[in-house]
TrEMBL record:
Protein name (database record): PD-(D/E)XK nuclease family transposase
Domain of life (superkingdom): Bacteria
Amino acid sequence: MTTAKQPGSTAVYIDPLTDFGFKRIFGTEPHKDLLIAFLNSIFNGQKHITELSFSKTEYKGDTINGGGAVFDLLCTGSSGEKFIIEVQRSNQKNFKERALFYTSRLISDLAPKGKRHLWNYELPEVYLVALLEDFELEAPSTGTVLHDVGLCSAGSGIRFYDKLGFI
């Protein structure tokens, strides 16, 4: 059965680059398959994500006055990897610092409280996937739309640590 659009009615669309739109389209259990497909396309075969669970998005600071972070989405993959997903529509002067802060905040929160000697600093993979509109990460612009940033040796360019990435 098909339904014709009524004359004079207005179609309603969700903008996927707003916080509300992105969370509505990708950040709910019924639409989890869309987020999995999206992440798999971004990782282009480097990772194969088959399952995700949504995690808390608010991380309180160490003091009352600061140090907290609120992510747009935070997901955990079936292998324990963490994916912070951020949507940023306007230029933010310190976005790179914010990306480092967010991943650092998540990583520090993953450390167990007490009995750290049993933990041995075994960290899961952590990725920050940022969807950016209307600003460049590089100056001058290279025209690149997908950046895969990781920790590399400044001298050789060889990846130093492959469990932290910024895309």
